[in-house]
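Case study.
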Amino acid sequence: MDFLTALMTIGLNHFLVLGLVIFGIGIMGVFLRRNALITLMSIELMLNAGNLTLLSFARAQHDMRGQALAFLVIAVAAAEAAIGLAIVVGLFRNRKSTDLDELNLLRF
Amino acid sequence: MTQNYPLYLIALLPFLGAALNLLFGRRLGNGIVSLIACGAVAGAALVATKAVWILGHDLPTKGMLVDQFFEKDWITAGDLHVAAGLMLDRLSAVMVLIVTWIALLIHIYATGYMEHEPDYARFFGYLNLFTGSMLILVLGDSLPVTFVGWEGVGLCSYLLIGFWYQEDKNATAGRKAFIVNRVGDFGFLLGICLLWTLLGTVKYAEMGSLLNELRRPFWMGWPAGYWVAVFLFIGCMGKSAQIPLYVWLPDAMAGPTPVSALIHAATMVTAGVYVVARTHGIFDITPSAAQMLVSGIGAITALMAATIGIVQRDFKKVLAYSTVSQLGFMFVGVGSGAYVAGIMHLMTHAFFKAGLFLGAGSVMHAMGGEGDITKMGGLGKHMPITRWTFFVYCLAIAGIFPFAGFFSKDAILAGAFASKFVMADTANPTQQMLINLYPKFLWGTLTLAAFCTAFYMWRLYFMVFTGTFRGTHEQEHHLHESPPEMTLPLVVLAVGAVLSGLIGVPAVMSHGLPESVQHFTGFFEHWLVPAIVPASPEPHGHALEWGLMAGATIISIAGIGLAASLYRGGISKAAENVKNSLQPVYALLWNKYFVDELYDLVLVRPLKMLARVLWRVADAVIVDGGLTKVGPALVGWFGTRTRRLQNGDVQRYLIAVVLGAAAVLFLSTFWLPYRGVQGSITKEGRRVNLVLGEGKVPNNRLVYRIDWDGDGKFDEENVRHAEKGFFHDYQNAGTFRIVVEAHDPDWHVGKSSADWILGARKPLSVTVE
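After joint prediction, the assembly is written out as follows.
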């Protein structure tokens, strides 16, 4: 099977698995990393995994609603990135660190 | 018969005044506060007068003005619907005129009396609130509306007795009044409820036609009406200070003097008399046990309070006991069927007793707050207006012709003397004789009380206004006549105390006078009888009636004479001698028959003891020591074990969220078909029954495909699980593998029993012979 033939057999499931893998990478990044910037990036990954899934289904089911929803998610992601980065910058100015574990003023 | 009229204005104006003065009074300044307070009451008085004028001129004698706010949905609970409204008939007309005009005079007086009071606005706010409540009381068209006013005046009484609450004594007196009244109010409320259950109405206008219902025996052999009357009268005992609930009124003198005059002499305390007259149909029912109770209690109260009044030294205390005593007179009037006399005495008493209190206030104003009459004396020459008006009031209350008190008190005495009480026929001769003697007992008691009244009032007068001054030099230097805003009401009330009796002259006296004069002198009786209340009993024969009048006058003059001989020109040696020779009697009276001490011993202390036990045991031990410790301990125990869940690490929270979401998804999508392919197999010959899901899966939710012989082709497709499951009849013997696929159409997920992960727990196979 040459590359192009293989490409032809790529179906919905492949895209869904890719989305799952990206989402898994993202969620693991949020779970495990302590750096605020990395965490933000991981969140972006998760959002994009969602986008990928939406687009896959939209394509597979010939339904444009999935694509429309993907635009909404992109807009939300942009807003989230802007606010999140602003928070990280403000955080760094104050604490000279972006380690999330050090942000424990509100803990008991 | 009835006509609509905005009666609400009469009560609303004082309420508005109260709202303005209580909310903004502090910022308005005393001038505006007095203007609002007096203006509101004056407005109410004018509207009331107009209404009474319409009532008297345009309507027949039984007519009334009405103002219905709620047809029937004032109070709604289940099938109980209570209407509410105001009504003005000839009886409430008397009360409304008394309340508004006397309140106006006392408001004006108070602007002078209270001028140095820092809490001026609060005082007038309360006073207006009282006036409004009292008007609701007398204008109410049914017992519940009256009860609203009843409670309102009780509250204002409490607030005003304790007006100078900074002194513990005053606050205590206020509380005492409130609590004692509460006992009475409870009885009153029971009476209303009982009447409701018996008649289905508590409206005065509707009650009259239903009274036969009240004749049925109800409890302990007495008719229902008797119990209603008793409960209502318990309320009246509290509000109108009758034995055994009179103890609050003497203490209520702790309030400012205008309050004593308005609330505790002229208006509020007469509410009980008004209610008895208002509901006279209930009290009239034979056998007349209720009437005997009312008149008996009234007579005993009249005498007891009058005897206490003889020895009191505090100016206002004398007047307080005098009020209790006079209220007893009124109750004898309404209790022995002489309603006109009772209401008339209520009116004349409002004039002269309000005047007496205002006179007392004037004297105490001059004395710098001193109320002890043994420290006064010879004030007459310093304050002539107060002295001479007081002189008139004293003549009126003592019952000297032609002052107002003479006519009203005489009417009560005559009514009591001539009254007839009807009891059950089963009374034996002794009982019958006692019942026949009862009117004479009432008359005798009242006559004795009237003697004491004349004596203590004139003792008061002589000790205060004649002789030489017994107070300090400084006080004497200070003596002055009161300002005009105080003396004007005194004069107006004095005129009332002289003239108000002339509209109720007994028929026997006006006999032979011209028609027009007779019309005037019998006005009060024609106003009320027979439309509103039944006619009073009258003594047989003119000679007897003249004789009773002469007797009453002689008794009064004797009282005045005795007072003059002992106290004219100061406390005489003779008075001291009498006091010393009757030391035990004096001690008994001085200590008010030890009634307060008795109540303290029998009621107050046991209750306090109970309260102490509840506090020390129930509260301190069980609640504070037990319950309040158990709760926090439980919460603390639980908290220390669950606090780890909230460690503030957002990442851990997130893990929990994701795992939880995954678990929910897994359970809802994969678990259901997984349970759906678990099956049990039973055989009947070659028929094999297969039950899937085993009651763990909702019936008919899953769609199955079944391969009965394991050949890879499904024998049944798209079947749902029926009650008893699936069955298959095998053609041949052998061992067969069964494969089941369950599909959940809601979630689009499926599961095969042959799956490697989460397949059937036991391989589904069957051997048939």
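Observations recorded in class. The interface with chain B takes residues 27, 30-32, 100-101, 104, 106-108 of chain A (CB under 8 Å). Chain A has four helices and no strands. We will return to this complex in the next lecture.
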